[in-house]
From TrEMBL:
<dbReference type="Pfam" id="PF00732">
    <property type="entry name" value="GMC_oxred_N"/>
</dbReference>
<dbReference type="InterPro" id="IPR036188">
    <property type="entry name" value="FAD/NAD-bd_sf"/>
</dbReference>
<dbReference type="GO" id="GO:0016614">
    <property type="term" value="F:oxidoreductase activity, acting on CH-OH group of donors"/>
</dbReference>
<dbReference type="InterPro" id="IPR000172">
    <property type="entry name" value="GMC_OxRdtase_N"/>
</dbReference>
<feature type="domain" description="Glucose-methanol-choline oxidoreductase C-terminal">
    <location>
        <begin position="430"/>
        <end position="554"/>
    </location>
</feature>
<keyword id="KW-0274">FAD</keyword>
<comment type="similarity">
    <text>Belongs to the GMC oxidoreductase family.</text>
</comment>
<dbReference type="GO" id="GO:0050660">
    <property type="term" value="F:flavin adenine dinucleotide binding"/>
</dbReference>
<keyword id="KW-0560">Oxidoreductase</keyword>
<protein>
    <submittedName>
        <fullName>Gluconate 2-dehydrogenase flavoprotein</fullName>
    </submittedName>
</protein>
<dbReference type="InterPro" id="IPR007867">
    <property type="entry name" value="GMC_OxRtase_C"/>
</dbReference>
<keyword id="KW-0285">Flavoprotein</keyword>
<feature type="domain" description="Glucose-methanol-choline oxidoreductase N-terminal">
    <location>
        <begin position="143"/>
        <end position="333"/>
    </location>
</feature>
<dbReference type="Pfam" id="PF05199">
    <property type="entry name" value="GMC_oxred_C"/>
</dbReference>
Length: 573
């Protein structure tokens, strides 16, 4: 028998970055907020012995259990989709903090061009450059950089971002709250080479603290120890901005916030044609079912699950690639990395580092370079990073070396501290044949259909990636590498090898309900009191990591939730 619980003002589905931001802001305004988190509670005290590469980096201690829920995948709409049975291309987080616990900390702002890519491209190059006849579906986001800038600033101060001005970046209302991280030997070499090539390098904006920091809400973070265990790991020092050390404590201090763990939301409960009245969840331990009523429901889980909950709850119209009708599931994008590895005679302390310790440049990002004679739009940021070469997953060998035997061992040992990689993190183009759906055959542990991902790299993705890879190789040659291997040839997308966790789209934002799921406040077009926030709102993916922009959107959404609760109805831009 389903039990109905006491109503709250706001319920969030998930307690990661977005859920934590919504909770902190709403709770500070006096609203009663509940986060339903299907994982467990955890925090810095749980990570005192986290330096175990086998446990965390290879056996995915902090990741989603794919035996309970996964995705099915195919490259093309006419193929059969099959389940991803082990973590591969992307690493979904679980428990309080979500993927915000094990992220590296790269915290860029998307460019003004990103938010108005269709109109800016058409203005500069003409409509034909959008290549709509080849299936590309670029669209503006319904919001501009200038409108989002205050929210970017707020997120950076909450997270204590360490950084410096981007020579090619947009205007900022304030400087970064912390100075940049240390500049190691390899970063200095990259900087010198880039400047000799007339590029504009700058230190990568980092959520690893360059010094002790107290954010505007009074949350304290320690200084980074450069231990090299960031990606796939939690921080034992409290020196990496995560939800557990920032927004969640802030929310709890108000006395207006509660997290219920082991609570897996399986349905959004509709209330007529334009409202929802709460969610249904299952206690993952007892298997009991509950209804949680709320004035406002905010989907703040990972973008794949945000999409799934809308679909199984029959909210919005599913996208159909044949007719291109419907908005739910459209414009799914991923990310590519075209780069190169340089082999040097000298050694570097690459076994030390931090998740976001790096030097980057934007000379080939967005529309910062002329695309007139190029067969792709956008570009990517280029960077070299020193995130820490850990012994199991670090086997730097030259192209053509066998992946086993004496030569492999000798090359691995020799090159372990003698290689530097430079890579372009590339944007990806939305295409009408890349989308999310649900699977009619495979179900999760709770009887719900799995998300079905149909995705392949586009011709633009391949050309863009190759372009950035070749530019990366040129930088390494200028840095003095004795040998350079360039990796820029994309074949079909494969969900097995890890590439990034930067999935975007499926619940895109915009100013037209015919082409978007939510408006500029992240308010669902079909239900006034339902908000959806995350990377699923992106209409395409940029040449940057998504978290900074997700954080800005979450603060924008929080403001919308508070406005709505004071005066229910459709929010105006």
């Amino acid at each position: 028998m389903v039990k109905e619980l006491e109503k709250v003002d706001v319920v969030t589905v998930g307690a990661g970055w977005t859920g934590g931001i919504i909770a902190a802001e709403a709770a500070k305004e006096g609203l009663k907020v509940l986060s339903l988190e299907r994982g467990k509670r955890r925090g810095t005290k749980n990570y005192q012995h986290v330096h175990d590469e086998l446990k965390y980096a290879l056996r995915y201690e902090l990741m989603q259990d794919v035996t309970k829920e996964t995705v099915t995948f195919r490259n093309r709409p006419n193929e059969k989709a099959l389940p991803m049975r082990q973590m591969g291309s992307f690493l979904l987080g679980e428990h309080v903090g979500g993927a915000g616990t094990h992220w590296n900390g790269w915290t860029y702002r998307f460019m003004p061009y990103d938010f108005e890519i269709k109109s800016m491209t058409e203005e500069r190059y003409g409509k034909a450059k959008l290549m709509e006849d080849k299936g590309y579906r670029f669209q503006d986001w319904g919001i501009t950089y200038d409108e989002l800038e205050p929210y970017f600033d707020k997120f950076e101060k909450t997270a204590g971002i360490s950084g410096e001005d981007n020579p090619l970046g947009p205007e900022r209302s304030d400087k970064y709250p912390n100075p940049p991280m240390v500049k190691t030997k390899s970063l200095k070499m990259f900087e010198k080479a880039a400047k000799e090539l007339k590029y504009n390098p700058y230190m990568l904006p980092s959520a690893n603290m360059s010094q002790e920091y107290t954010n505007p809400d009074g949350e304290k973070m320690g200084a980074c120890q450069y231990c090299a265990f960031c990606e796939r790991f939690a921080c034992e020092y409290g020196a990496k901005a995560t939800p557990e050390v920032t927004v969640i404590p802030t929310a709890e201090k108000t006395g207006n916030y509660e997290i219920r763990t082991d609570a897996n939301v399986v349905e959004i409960i509709k209330d007529g044609n334009d409202k929802v009245k709460g969610v249904k969840f299952v206690d993952t331990v007892t298997k009991e079912e509950f209804i949680q009523p709320a004035d406002v429901v905010v989907l703040t889980s990972y973008m794949l699950n945000n999409y799934k909950l809308l679909r199984v709850s029959d909210i919005g119209e599913q996208y159909d690639p044949k007719t291109e009708k419907g908005t739910l599931g459209r414009n799914y994008c991923y990310q590519t990395s075209g780069g190169a590895t340089g082999f040097f005679d000298e050694q570097f302390n690459t076994f030390m580092g931090a998740g976001a310790l790096g030097m980057t440049l934007d000379d080939f990002n967005g529309d910062n370079f002329d695309h007139t004679d190029l067969d792709f739009l956008h570009g990517g940021s280029m960077a070299t990073t020193q995130t820490g070469a850990r012994p199991i997953l670090s086997n730097p060998v030259k192209a053509g070396t066998k992946s086993w035997g004496e030569d492999f061992k000798e090359e691995s040992i020799k090159n372990f501290t003698r290689t530097i990689s430079v890579a372009g993190q590339c944007a990806t183009s939305p295409h009408k044949d890349n989308y999310l759906d649900i699977d009619d055959e495979y179900k999760d542990a709770y009887g719900l259909p799995l998300v079905k991902l149909t995705y392949n790299f586009t011709d633009q993705d391949r050309k863009r990636t190759k372009y950035l890879a070749e530019k990366s190789g040129e930088v390494l040659e200028k840095m003095g590498a004795k040998h350079v291997d360039v990796f820029g040839d994309l074949k079909d997308y494969d969900i097995v090898p890890y590439q990034s966790t930067h999935n975007t789209g499926g619940t895109v934002m915009g100013d037209d309900p015919k082409t978007s799921v939510v408006n500029s406040w992240l308010q669902h077009w079909d239900a006034d009191n339902l908000f959806v926030v995350g990377a699923g709102n992106f209409a395409h993916n940029s040449g940057y990591n998504p978290t900074g922009t997700v954080g800005a959107l979450a603060y924008r959404c929080a403001e919308g939730v508070i406005k709505y609760h004071k005066k229910p109805g459709r929010l105006e831009k």
